[in-house]
Amino acid sequence: MEIAPQVFENTTNNIAGLEAAQPANAVGNNSLGQDSFLRLMTTQLKFQDPFDPLDNQAMVAQLAQFSSVAGISEMNQSLTDIASMLGNNRLSDAKEWIGHTVLVPGTFAVANKDGVYAGEFELNQASDNLSIDLLNETGEIVMFAELGRQDAGPVEFSFDSKNANGEPQDLGRLRVRVNGGSISDLATWVPVASVQTSQADEPPILVTPIGNVLPSEALRIG
Fold first, then answer.
1. 43: domain range?
2. What value, to the nearest 5°, has the Cα angle with vertex 203 and ends 197 and 208?
3. Torsion of CA 195, 196, 197, 202, to 10 degrees
4. Which of 13, 34, 88, 135 is 20 to 30 A (C-alpha) from 74?
5. Whether residue 146 is found in the same domain as residue 41
């Protein structure tokens, strides 16, 4: 009895046919997800050489390798999320600011532990008679300074509130008023009293006598 020879398809031609079916301008997303991997594995099984089938151990090794890579990718994403959260909400670092002063934009100044009110601003153009007043809540001038002739540029100021005995006084929150010139970027030094945590991955909040301040709003720390 004559047995008709079996005819097997040429895997090389089939693969070539698959390649030819792809558009010339086909592009991928340079990533291999779980679905793509399973489709690739199924196609590999479909077009395997029947005289040299895929080794079971090799297939298991490929699956294990894919699972390992997928796990590492997920772990990296988790670590990235944690690092981002810690970077935005570093409460331990912010606590180190307690007892220090920060330079923040604003018109109100507060005395530091030595009783000094200080700040700075940008003088937009030269002035022949520049002066600075510090006013209390009722608008009364508590302290003032005559600076006279000043060139355009940055100007720093400070007021010592010590009494006749040399003891520092806390006169409360005082409003800064500059007379005799056009200014911008007024900022004052204020002490950090405490630190509050914020919601989710938001940065911590610095609590000062003039209100809450974000660390990113501080121009400098003293």
1. 11-20+32-88
2. 65
3. -80
4. 88
5. no
Q: What is the mean pLDDT of the chain?
A: 75
The residue type of 190 is V
Indicate if the pLDDT at residue 45 is higher than 70.
Answer: no
Q: DSSP 3-state assignment of 110?
A: coil
Q: Which of 97, 123, 121 is nearest to 190 (CA)?
A: 97
Q: Are residues 108 and 82 part of one domain?
A: no
pLDDT of residue 123: 93
Domain count, the chain: 2
Q: Are 206 and 214 in contact (CB under 8 A)?
A: yes
Asked if residue 75 has pLDDT above 50, the reply is yes
pTM of the model: 0.56
Tell me which DSSP letter residue 51 carries.
T
- State the Cα–Cα distance between residues 156 and 163, nearest whole angstrom: 23
- Judge whether residue 76 has pLDDT over 70: no
Report the distance separating Cα 216 and Cα 88, nearest Å. Answer: 10
Same domain, 77 and 184: no
Q: What is the pLDDT of residue 136?
A: 92
Residue at 155 is within a domain: yes
Structure tokens that stand for 129 in this block: 């008679």
Residues 111 and 196 in one domain: yes
